[in-house]
Write a sequence for this structure.
């Protein structure tokens, strides 16, 4: 009699499957929260009473993709850049949102510690997508939505002004 030895199937998804799941969840969070697929190219501001305004820039629109930039409206005093901020690409046909680049505030890095260097591109992408997922969840809990999103109006001088309330 021969015995057949089977490899047990893992109960946990692979890192790649986990990443694809994060991409899908981030797509649906973005779509529910801000509806960027229906927004014209331009800049938008979501303002609540907490003083942490969120800026969404719809940068490029193609048949199956949409490029976005999401950030808070404050600047990291050490780098002079908006932080945290994320460059995103939404794939409408696959219903996925990929983080192309993600930057954190230096104060945040000092408070929680630097992210350890990723051992692989996959590990870096998982970290960026996980960060976006938690950030979108936080923004939704704070009340940011398509209902709080207003277009920013370009001024004559080229400086973008916030809409009057």
């Amino acid at each position: 009699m021969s015995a057949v030895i089977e490899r047990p199937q893992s109960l946990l998804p692979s890192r790649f499957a986990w990443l694809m799941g994060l991409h899908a969840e981030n797509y649906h969070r973005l779509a529910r929260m801000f509806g960027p697929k229906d927004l014209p190219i331009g800049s938008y501001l979501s303002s609540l009473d907490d003083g942490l305004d969120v800026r969404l820039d719809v940068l490029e629109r193609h048949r199956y993709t949409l490029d976005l930039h999401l950030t808070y409206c404050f600047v990291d005093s050490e780098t002079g850049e908006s932080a945290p901020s994320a460059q995103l690409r939404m794939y409408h046909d696959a219903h996925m949102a990929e983080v192309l680049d993600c930057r954190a505030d230096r104060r945040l890095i000092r408070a929680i510690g630097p992210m350890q260097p990723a051992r692989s591109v996959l590990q870096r992408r998982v970290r960026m997508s996980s960060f976006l997922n938690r950030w979108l969840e936080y923004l939704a809990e704070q009340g940011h939505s398509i209902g709080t999103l207003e277009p920013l109006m370009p001024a004559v001088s080229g400086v973008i002004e916030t809409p009057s309330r």
Q: What stands out?
A: DSSP finds three helices and eight strands in the chain. Residues 19 and 126 are 6 Å apart (CA to CA).
